[in-house]
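Sanity check

After download, print the first record. It should look like this:
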Amino acid sequence: MIYYLLDTSALGHIYTRENPRLTELLEYIFLQRIRGRAFLYLPNFCVPEIFNIFARNRYRKRIINDSQYENLRTAFRDHIRNRKTLYSYDLNRYHNINTDIIFTAEHTTAPLRPSRRAGIEASKCSLSALDILIIAMGIELKHVHSGNDVYLVTNDERLSNVCNKIKSAPKAFYLEMTYKKDLPK
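Expected structure tokens:
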């Protein structure tokens, strides 16, 4: 069995379809779930972030209409309801304890500078507390599913870089630099 921990920056692409290549990668991961080859975790604090993406696209950006907004909300609710497609993974004390493993890698990894590449915000020069908790959740999943493949899927380059420096953390796939051939079969 393959275990994926998805964050908001990755999962959002299955719903927004803003980038066809990234959407295709997420569809492949979802297909693995449908075929019973993969299990998909989503940190519970990412649930409101996904709903917020839909609301932002409807009310601020105005790139979707009311019907599309309701359809997206319904589809996502169906995916998390009864943990049918996505398992809403609750934060626990082990995740908080695991954060201590991450700080050295976070604070010794060179920051992504806004000037290095277009589109990188100054806020991505370091990880947020939620980003650190996502890696900590991945560490716990790797421990719980010992002997199985556990991966973190993100579209956050810094999160991926830091995660991949930590031996006890799962391998992180940064979607912008990942192709279907790179994903487990």
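If your output differs, re-run the checksum step. Summary of this record's structure: Residues 93-108 form the longest helix (16 residues).
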